[in-house]
């Protein structure tokens, strides 16, 4: 009985599918796409195909840091409190030793990068100083 019911339902579904009724729901042949040639394309004068920008970071915390510290810059992070961040260590852009609380770095960033987190580590085992900076095309100063 079950088999007969299944055969009946399958037959009914095949009949309901229909066939080619001659009508077409696709685009008509009269709607041809417009062809654009490469020489017709225009780009603004300031457009560049280089997705990389140079960024400058200057830190001057002399007198408020131990003599030897280490700076790391990260592109991926999440904020877990007011000015407290968890950085993705795999997203490190650059790091460098810092002496007497002063350092100037130049590094490359993706043009789409809008924020970075800078960490300053001291060698005494304390938690790092962290600060988030927005990327706006100007030099970063801490």
Automatic annotation (TrEMBL):
PROSITE patterns to which the protein is assigned, alphabetical: PROKAR_LIPOPROTEIN
Superkingdom assignment: Bacteria
Signal peptide annotation: 1-18
Entry protein name: Putative lipoprotein
Keyword Signal: yes
Keywords from the named record: Lipoprotein, Signal
């Amino acid at each position: 009985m079950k088999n007969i019911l299944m055969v009946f339902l399958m037959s009914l579904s095949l009949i309901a599918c229909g066939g080619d009724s001659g009508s077409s729901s696709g685009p008509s042949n009269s709607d041809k796409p417009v062809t654009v040639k490469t020489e017709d394309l225009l780009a603004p004068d300031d457009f560049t195909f280089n997705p990389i920008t140079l960024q400058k970071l200057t830190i001057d915390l002399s007198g408020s840091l131990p003599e030897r510290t280490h700076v790391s810059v990260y592109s991926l992070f999440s904020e877990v409190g007011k000015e407290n961040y968890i950085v993705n260590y795999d997203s490190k852009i650059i790091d460098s030793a810092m002496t007497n609380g002063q350092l100037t770095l130049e590094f490359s960033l993706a043009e789409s990068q809008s924020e970075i987190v800078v960490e300053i580590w001291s060698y005494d085992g304390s938690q790092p100083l962290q600060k988030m900076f927005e990327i706006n095309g100007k030099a970063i100063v801490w």
